[in-house]
Structure formats: C-alpha cells, structure tokens
Amino acid sequence: MKFDREKYSVWKLPNLLLIHWVINPALAFNELILGQRLPKITLIDKTSDAPLLERQYIPCPHCESLHDARLWSKRNAFGHWFGYVCPSCSEKIPCLWNLTSLLILAVTFPIWVPIKHFCESKWLQFEKQRLSKAQHQPLVKASPKLWLKLGVLFGLIMFIVTLMAKGATGGIDPQNIPFYALVNFSAGAFVGLMMKVFLGWKKKR
C-alpha cells in the first residue's frame, strides 16, 4: 500500500513507541486480558495543526481506506483480541504482538486454539457492530479530562494487577494496600501527564 509521503509520516517498526509495545512484558496484560492492540502501521497527518491524537489514521491494506484512529478509543479501545477490523471491508488490519504475549500464547495454545475456533466469527460480528456505532458518535478530543481519565484508568488497572500478583505469591498484607494504591495511582498520574504531552502535541508551523 502506497502513502502520500508529502501529507503523512508513517509510524511502523522500528519506531521507538512500537518497539516499546513489542518488548515491554507488562503490556502482555493489555493485549491478552484487556484486548488492547496497536496496528503495525499508523499514518500521521503532517498538514494538520491539530493535536497528535486527532491526526492519526490507520490504513487498511486490503481496501486501502484510511480510518481515524480514534474509532478504536473510549470503550472501543478494549476487546480486540483477534486484532482490528476494517470498518469498510471487514478484513483484519495487521496489528503488532508483544513478545511476552507470543510466549504465553505458545505455552497455552491448547487452551486458546479451541476458543479462537468457536468464538472468532461471533467476535467479528461484534466488532462490526461496535465500529458501526463508533462511526456515528463524536470522536474523542484532546481535552484535559481525557488525560485525567487515562491516568486514573491506568492507575486502577495497575493497582488491581498488583493486588492479584501479591495475592498469587503469598497473600496481601492489608497494611500495605494504601502504599500499593499510592504507588500505582502516582504512576497513573505520570502516564496521564506523558500522554498529555505526547498526544496533545501540536505541529508547529
């Protein structure tokens, strides 16, 4: 698939953000449990002065249509265990895999292969319905509330993961719960700030 290099910059491996997604073991949780995925190719509109969040596009290699990346945000950011689906042709858009996710899938393949066989077609219909609804709803804007919500969500997820990990490795000391909450929600605040700086960045003219 060819792109207008004058209008778009192309994000693909070895882009540092994508490398981080591939090698960070913690992101296996996002992929395998939450169903968050990242497309192999994302286009950034170089001609727009909107925040970075609002000028990302995901190309479909099958029908060559471009889709606003925000279609896969909000509630539609989760549940994409089998990848992204093109809203135009319903084919799968290639996504990256985290290396730890691939290792876990290789070890557990007797469990998930039957699930994939029986559930993938139903999941595909569900994806089509979700995308149809997303196309008729206002797209997310780069607002301060967005970064706050992202930070709180990240902190909450990591807090839950921490409690699960501690519970699985010897139990949870109730006295340590406030400390875990402080650490994880502080990390969430940091992530929200970084997302604000990164995705809220506007192109200088």
Note the quaternary state here.
single chain
Main β sheet profile: 4 strands, antiparallel
Sheet-strand content, in percent, reads: 5-15%
Q: Poorly predicted ranges (pLDDT <50, ≥5 residues)?
A: none
**Helix content bin:** 40-55%
Give the end-to-end Cα distance, rounded to a whole number of Å: 29 Å
Number of domains: 2
- Outline type: globular
User: Mean pLDDT, rounded to whole units?
Assistant: 81
Number of strands: 6
Strand line-up in the sheet with most strands: 1-2-3-4
Rg (CA only): 18 Å
Q: What string, H for helix and E for strand, traces the elements in order?
A: EHHEEEEEHHHH
Class from secondary-structure proportions: alpha+beta
State the helix count.
Answer: 6
Structural notes for this entry:
A four-stranded antiparallel β-sheet has the order 1-2-3-4, with no helix packed on it. With 205 residues, the chain is α+β, with helices and mostly antiparallel strands. α5 (144-168) runs antiparallel to α6. The model has no long low-confidence stretch (mean pLDDT 81). Helices cover 49% and strands 9% of the residues. The protein folds into two domains: 1-140, no CATH class; 142-205.
Protein topology:
Blueprint: E1 8-11, H1 16-23, H2 27-34, E2 42-45, E3 56-59, E4 66-68, E5 84-85, E6 92-93, H3 99-107, H4 109-135, H5 144-168, H6 177-199
Antiparallel strand pairs: 1-2, 2-3, 3-4, 5-6
